[in-house]
From TrEMBL:
Family indicated by similarity: Belongs to the sigma-70 factor family. ECF subfamily.
Record key words, sorted: DNA-binding, Sigma factor, Transcription, Transcription regulation
Protein name (database record): Sigma subunit sigma24-like protein
GO MF annotations, alphabetized: DNA binding; sigma factor activity
Organism whose genome encodes this protein: Nocardioides simplex
First and last residue of the signal peptide: none
Keyword Transcription regulation: yes
Amino acid sequence: MDEPIDLDDLALRAAAGDRTALDDLLAAIQPRVRRICGRMLLHPQDAEEATQDALLLVATKIGTFAGRSRFTTWLHAVASNSARTTYRSLKRRAAEHSVDEMPVAADPRTTSVIAGSRLDLLEALEVLASTRPELVEPLVLRDIQELDYNEIAQLLDAPLGTIKSRIHHARQAVRPLLRVDEG
């Protein structure tokens, strides 16, 4: 039976310049990064683009990982931010194309014709990030990544009560942005 991979150890060795550790780390985390991105960007090609961007960021920024928190905490932040950056990039590219080229049948409040994701949720996260950035990651980890509160507290190295409070406040902040008019 194979020993479980110690991502923290691999990350610290990679951060110290061990190329083999970096290669092993990237191979080990790719499925996890794909899942994280896939929960935010439902269209497989968009999720794959975000995954590749996140893996590139890990490879180029691993030297900044000092082991003060768990590697998976750092990784979740990198992958979630990569998915949100990919969404913004796809949105910008779509805006540059003629509106006539966009399909008209999709409901833009629930399905993205840009990125195969929930436009309303990603837009709400953008608004929240601009005003209360500390609330975004706990909300993403709970409502998109579907981690339980204890896992999130452990992942973010924060007290359980703080995590529950941040998620509660984040939901209050995004709720009005997610309403679909019943017109």
